[in-house]
Structures are given as C-alpha cells and as structure tokens.
Design brief:
The complex is a heterodimer of chains A (about 280) and B (about 600). By secondary structure, chain A is of the alpha+beta class. Chain A is built from five helices and ten strands; from the N terminus they run αααββββββββββαα. With about 600 residues, chain B is mainly alpha-helical. Chain B has a two-stranded antiparallel ribbon with strand order 1-2. Classes of the chains: A alpha+beta (about 280), B mainly alpha (about 600).
C-alpha cells in the first residue's frame, strides 16, 4: 500500500515539479527555436510514457500484492501484446527522431548569406576575428603564433591583412545577420557556449569546427566554456553583444586590423622580441 | 507438451567430459589469499570494489559540498574539485560497477547457475582478481603521488589530460591512471575469457542456452561486449601514455600552451574520443546488461511468476549488446566530428530504445497478475524500474542529436547518466545482495535496517538527480566548481544546496547498509535452504552456503527453464530447475 502510494506520489511530484518549478531554459536569442520545440515535444512524449508505466506499476503493486491464497497467473508470453508494444514504441521513437533529424539538417547547413567570423580559445580566454572589408578570413596556423601575432595569422596571406583581431575584448555581432562561427583552439579542447544561442560546438586544436546562428534580439550574453580545459575552465568567460546594425558599424570602426597590429598595436609596443617565426 | 517418461533423464544428452574435482586449497595462502574458488574470488572482487567505492562515495560528498555551498570549504580548490570528479567517475564506472557485476556477481553466480563446479580456468581466475587488485592499488596510490591524482575528468580527453593546466597532467596523476587502467583491462580479460568459456562449455546436462536464467544471459553478453570493447580503451591508454612519457603525438596536434610552442604535432584529439567511446558506450551496457538480467530474476522470484516474454528478453539483451557497438559517437555530437555522423548515430541510438523499452514493459508485465511479495529484493527492483525508466527516457533527449546540442556538457547530462547507470544499477546491486546474501552466508540480512536503507536511498537518490536535470536545462555546465553567471537565477543556488543535503543523507544510508552486513553476518536469522523458494539452480545445492565444488557427489541435471513459478497443477508455487517432474506446462523448445 505504502509502496503503491509512493510510486503514485513520485509521478505527481515529478509532473508538478516540471510544471511549476522556476527552473527552465533562458529566453532564446537565436533562430534555434526549432531546437526548443523538439525538446518540448520530447518532454511530452517521454513524460507521458514515464507517468503511464509508473502508474501501471503502482496499480499492479496495489492490486497483486501478496495475500494468503493468492496465486500468480501463469502466462509465459504473449506474442500479440509484445508486437503491439514494440510497434507503439517504434512509432513514439520515430515521432521524436524524425523532427530531430530535420532540424539537425538545418543546423549543419550554413546559409550562403552567413558572415564568417572566428572564435579562438586558449587557456583561459577568448579571442575573436572578423573578416574585414574583403569579407574573407585569412589563413592561420598555430605555428605562426607569437606575442606579435597571438592568433597565428599568416602574414603572407592578403586576405589576412584586413582581418579585425579582438584580443581580450567583447565580440559584437549585428542583429538579424546569419553568422557562421568558425572555432579554433590553440592549446586544448574548449567549447564556445552561449546558453541563449542554444548552439554550441567543441573547439579542437589542429582543426577548425563551426556552427551557425542568427541573433534575434539585442543584448549582452555571457560566453562560457563547456568542455573541460583545465583548472581555469569554470572562469573562462567573455561576452557577446548583439547590436542594432548602426551600433555595430560604429563599434567595428574602432577595431584594430591585423595589418595594424605589430606596428600600431599599443598593447604590444616594446614587447615584440624572440620572434622566431616569420 | 511432452509427457513424463519412466526415466526422467531421458532425452538429456550424457556428459561430454568427465566430472573432475576442482583444485582444492592446501594451506593458508591457497585458501584465503590466492584462492581458486570462484565463490571466494567473487567475495574478494566485491570487497575490493566496495572498499574503493567508499572512496568514491566520500569524493561525491566533497563534490556536492562544493556545489551546494561554494566558497564555504576552502580546502576544495579548483584543482581538488577536478581531481574529485575525475576519481569519483572513474572509480564508480570501472573499478566499482564493472568489477562488482562481472568479477563479483559473475564469479559467484555463473558456476552455480549453470551447474558447474567452478570456472573452467580457476588459476587464471585467481590471477584476474590479483591484477584487478594491483590496478586498484595503483589507482589509490595516485592520491599520494606528487601533484595528486589526475583532474582530467573521467573521460581523460587529450590534450589537456597530459598538459600542465590540468592537475596531474605533467606529474604522476595521469600516468598512474593510465597504468591502472591497463592493469585493470589485463585482469578483466583473464576473468572475462573465463566467464564466457564457462557459460559456453561448462553448463551441466540439460542446461540449454535457452534455459539459462536471464542473470547469466546478462552477465554473459556483457562479458563478451567487454572483451570486445576494453581493447579500444587499452590501446588508447597505451598511446596516451606514449604521448605523455615518450613525446609521441598520437593524440597531440601542434599547439601553443601558455604562449609556449610544444614539440607535439600531427596527432588528433578526436581519435582519442572515438577510441574512448568505442569502449565507453558499450561500457554503459556492460554495467546495464547484468543489472537487466539480475533484476529480471529478482522480479520473477519475488512476484512468484515467470519472467514475461523470456525469449524476447534474451533477444533484447543480445540485440542491445550488438547495437551498443554502433552508437558510441552520440557522446560526440558537439565534438567537432563530421556533422553527417549525427544522422547515423542519432538513428542507431534511438533504435536501441526499442529493445530497451521492451525490457521495461516485460518487467512491469511480470508484476501484472503476479503474487507480489514486497521483500527487499522486490523493493529495490521496483526502485530500479522507476530510476532506469526515468534515466532511459532522458537518454532520448541526449541521443536525439539536435536536442543534445543545448543540453550536452550541462548538468542535464550529469543527472541523466547518474540516474541510468549510477542509481539504477546500484539499486539492482542492493536488491541482488539482499537476495543472495543467504546463499553466500546462510543468514538473512536485517529486514528493518534494509527498509530504512531502501527508502532513504530510493527517495533520496530521486530527489538528488531528478531536480538536477533542471539545473542543466537552465544551462549550468557540468564540471564547474561554482556557477555564477548572468543567466543563472539565484534560486539555482538554493536547489543546489537542497541536492547536496539529499546527497549527504543518501551517502550516510549506505553506511547503514554496510553495518547491516556486518551485523547480519553474526546475528542474522538463519535462512535454511532456499529461503525465497526460488527455482533457479544456485539455490538447489546440497549445502548452504555451497562448498567448494558446489554440487557434492553428482552434478545436477536440468529439466526445465528457471521460471516455473505458479505452474497450474503443480504441488508448490515453484518447480526447481533440476526437478524431473511433473512435465513443464509450457515448453518453448520445439
């Protein structure tokens, strides 16, 4: 009796907790509302199954608990029932998987109109690079990294010269413009994670990964690292600011380009030595 | 239906090999230390696993104290926190759960349940335990090494695992961790070959594969999987050890650490992840399948009803085992691997939900119209179904590639895998210990203490891990010793404190369980033969507990499956597997 009641209570408390607790995702700031929708569909399907199975179990425990004289029913198997249950389960699984795969296809297909930008991670800070006037990011290699060239851009690549390099500052992005975020790491695994954008991806030294999204509201959003990267992992923070287009242009005008870095970079003045790399 | 003939053993083939006596102990060392009796080795395995498991329990307390009350405990630095979570995870998954299910329950139950005198290679079995013991000693030694144990996370992802930004990365921690894993795998391979060959070759007359209890099916399938999966971890560990000690670059690309160019170049960190999870995902089922098997038997015995859909249950175990080898990259959806992998691995992952769901249905349908005795093994089985169902369903979030994107690397993942491969299998371990303790000791565990243990553990564990999903849903990442961010409301701190209090209480209840074992060994009620009136073979031994060699003069002959409970017309509500008559009411053999 107590056991059956406890099982019912677990279902009730779980459902109540889900419906009334204050803990839910942060308001979205990107186009990935599809992901939220798929997640909610999954909640409803799995929640229904959980409640149904546990309540049925509670009823069984209540109805068929041992009493003197009770004899269990003898029924080794029932093909019919098992086939029905298998089919229903397969249907429920398909109902979650199909929309999931459709949204995944969108997630990995970058629109042609997307601007390419780059996020570079190292223990334990974020740097950013924007493509500049030519709209293209120049090539890069960790072997080129030096105090003068913190992101390892290729000085012989003409596309790199006008790239905007943001070291230690915040990243600004214009509202409503799709953006492909290229991700690089110079040391260990990191993961560029802004909860409001829903999207995230690991950054792997030796390769370039990416995701894309469209910012859908202005504001300041905190960047966290979501892949364990050493003792500073929990404090590796930054900010992305989504600006109205005019504000964005004003901010962009104040940034330094790669060509301007070693000569005009105030922060690096006088510190450029031991430059073994080209 | 076949009728009973004059000779009850007719139709059962004769023994293919003579019945040889197992190697008996001759003195102190061969009896109590280097024992070759599988039952004793099982206890050695279990005792060692529980001992190192207690370390993991204390670590979980420390982890929760930091998360619930950040800044209060000054001795828990970020370095220490990462060391705690790493060692907690690795101990629980490998050194406790894998060791206790296969080395503990496997050793104890396989020979008894299939009607063998012992494992087929008793000497190798002894070596297996001592290799495992050495692995545990090396692991424990890392707590005392300069720099302490590794803090790389239990997944040990390079490059950080062997670099200076991670505790133990350039000191002893990671080296000892990898050496310990290598020793563990060598030891497991010796034991695993033994378990598999014993099941295939040493079953007694009449014990066909489709008459084996599901416990044996679960342990057998998990063993075969482990023999195929652990080598991937083995090579990954050897290669990372080379990267760390010899300066090779299997997993290390050219990189710049804190402004300094390192001499690595050309390796791939993602290859390590593939190797790790090629082991790591089957590992989840290496823990789960023995639990599936054992819980099926507990439910059948204590509901006095045959397990519903036995054949389906066997095939579900085998299919889950096979499928679990092609789902590994669902741990890597946001790893940067080629995005098209997502389609394949999401599909295989969600397909595996179907045979898994069938198992849940069949457990519940076994309860339906049963004669449910609410014994401790039954209570823990019910607790298992609830927690496994909950954890399995949240797996559908994380397996569905695009839903995983916002949730991966958050506390949602932590809550999910603790529920599904922490709490649920541990429920089964407890149920199994309450169930088989009389077989091992001849005494019953205290029911009163067991009830307190069950309710605190079940309700408490649910109170820890159910709300934790919502911490992850808010967006709180895992592996953060504290979380302060604009998007995290203050109420999350309150919830974290609640979870911590629940975790401390649940941990304390486990000490009551250990006390129960110690107390019952001495004062427990004597059980007599077969106290649960179970039909499976291990309860039909001439002595209780069974002696070395298990079966006295003659090996048993098996006449039926392990689930003849409440057979209409039978004189009792169970018919033992070695009982020649009456004829089974239901035969699935053609």
């Amino acid at each position: 009796m107590i056991v059956a009641a406890s099982l019912v209570l677990i279902v009730l408390v779980s459902v109540m907790f889900h419906l009334v607790s204050p803990w839910w995702w942060t308001p979205i700031a990107s186009n990935w509302g599809y992901i939220d929708t798929t997640l909610v569909v999954t909640f409803w399907i799995t929640g229904t199954v959980f409640a149904a199975v546990v309540l049925f179990m509670a009823w069984c425990v209540f109805r068929y608990r041992h009493k003197p004289g009770r004899v269990a029913h003898y029924e080794p198997e029932s093909k019919r029932l098992e086939i029905w249950l298998t089919a229903l389960t397969a249907l429920g699984v398909a109902a979650m998987l199909a929309p999931g795969l459709v949204v995944w296809k969108r997630f990995i297909t970058v629109p042609d109109a997307a601007t390419e930008i780059e996020v570079v991670a190292q223990q334990w800070s974020w740097s950013y690079r924007l493509p500049g006037e030519d709209g293209r990011l120049g090539s890069s290699d960790v072997r080129q990294i030096s105090p003068d060239n913190p992101l390892g851009l290729n000085p012989h690549d003409r596309f790199a010269a006008d790239d905007v390099v943001i070291e230690g500052g915040d990243l600004h992005l214009p509202l409503g413009q799709p953006v492909k975020v290229n991700l690089r790491s110079v040391d260990v695994l990191h993961d560029f994670y802004v909860p409001e954008f829903r999207a995230k991806m690991d950054m792997v030294p030796g390769m370039v990964t990416y995701f894309w999204f469209t910012p859908t509201r202005t504001g300041e959003f905190e960047v966290l690292c979501a892949e364990l990267c050493g003792t500073g992992h929990g404090w590796m923070r930054g900010y992305v600011l989504i600006d109205a287009p005019a504000d964005y242009e004003a901010w962009l005008g104040e940034q330094l380009t790669f060509a301007g870095l070693p000569a005009g970079g105030v922060r690096l003045a006088g510190t450029a030595e031991e430059g073994g790399d080209p | 239906m076949s009728s009973t003939s004059e000779d009850p053993d007719s139709g059962i083939p004769p023994a293919e090999v003579p019945d040889l006596p197992p190697p008996h102990a001759h003195g102190f060392w061969s009896r109590w230390v280097f024992s070759q009796d599988a039952k004793y080795i099982a206890l050695q395995y279990s005792g060692t696993a529980i001992a190192i498991g207690l370390v993991a329990l204390v670590l979980s307390w420390l982890i929760r104290m930091q998360l619930g009350f950040p800044g209060v405990f000054h001795f828990i630095s970020a370095e220490a926190y990462y060391q705690f979570i790493t060692m907690h995870g690795m101990i629980m998954v490998v050194y406790l759960l894998t060791a206790i299910f296969l080395g503990g329950f496997g050793n104890y139950l396989i020979p008894l349940m299939v009607g063998a005198r012992d494992m087929v290679f008793p000497f190798v079995n002894m070596l297996s335990f001592w290799m495992y013991f050495a692995a545990v000693v090396v692991l424990a030694a890392s707590f005392f090494a300069p720099g302490g144990p590794t803090g790389a996370g239990w997944t040990l992802y390079p490059p950080q695992a062997i670099l200076s930004g991670t505790p133990g990365g350039t000191q002893w921690g990671i080296v000892l961790m990898l050496v310990s894993l290598i020793l563990f795998i060598i030891g497991f391979t010796m034991g695993g070959l033994n378990y598999a060959v014993t099941v295939l070759q040493a079953r007694t007359r009449g014990m066909t594969l489709m008459r084996m209890p599901l416990t044996i099916w679960g342990i057998f399938t998990a063993t075969v999987m482990a023999l195929l999966a652990f080598p991937a971890l083995f090579v990954a560990a050897v290669m990372m050890l080379f990267d760390r000690l010899l300066g090779t670059s299997f997993f290390m690309p050219a990189l710049v650490e804190m402004g300094e160019h390192l001499s690595y170049g050309g390796g791939s960190p993602i290859v390590f992840q593939h190797l790790f999870w090629f082991f790591g995902h089957p590992e989840v089922y290496i823990v789960a399948l023995p639990a599936f098997g054992i819980v099926s038997d507990l439910i059948a015995v204590h509901a006095r009803k045959n397990i519903f859909g036995y054949r389906m249950m066997v095939w579900a175990i085998v299919i889950i085992g096979a499928l679990s080898f092609i789902v590994w990259a669902h741990h890597m959806y946001v790893s940067g691997m080629h995005p098209y992998f997502g389609f394949f691995f999401a599909t295989t992952t969600l397909i595996i939900a179907v045979p898994t769901a069938i198992k849940v249905y069949n457990w519940v349908l076994t309860l339906h119209r049963g004669d449910i005795h609410l014994t401790l093994p039954m209570l823990f089985s019910l607790g298992f179904i609830v927690t496994f169902l909950n954890g399995g369903l949240t797996g559908l979030f994380l397996g569905n590639v695009v839903v995983d994107v916002p949730l991966s690397d958050t506390m949602f993942v932590v809550a999910h895998f603790h529920m599904v491969m922490g709490v649920a299998p541990i429920m089964v371990i407890y149920g199994a210990i309450y169930h088989w303790f009389p077989l091992i000791t001849g005494r019953m565990l205290s029911h009163g203490m067991g009830l307190v243990h069950f309710w605190v553990t079940f309700i408490g564990a649910y109170a820890i891990f159910f709300p934790m999903h919502y911490v992850g849903l808010v967006g709180v990442p895992r592996r953060y010793p504290e979380i302060e961010a604009a998007f995290v409301p203050d109420s999350v701190a309150t919830l974290n404190a609640f979870i911590t209090v629940a975790a401390l209480i649940v941990g304390a209840a486990q000490l009551l369980f250990l006390f129960n074992i110690a107390w019952s060994l001495r004062f427990g009620r004597r059980s007599g033969l077969n106290p649960w009136r179970a039909a499976s073979l291990e309860w039909q031994t001439p002595d209780m507990p069974p002696r070395h060699g298990n079966w006295g003069e003659a090996l048993p002959v098996v006449h039926r499956w392990a689930y003849d409970y409440s057979v209409p017309g039978a004189p009792r509500d169970y018919i033992a597997q070695d009982d020649p008559g009456p004829a089974a009411a239901w035969r699935h053999e053609p």
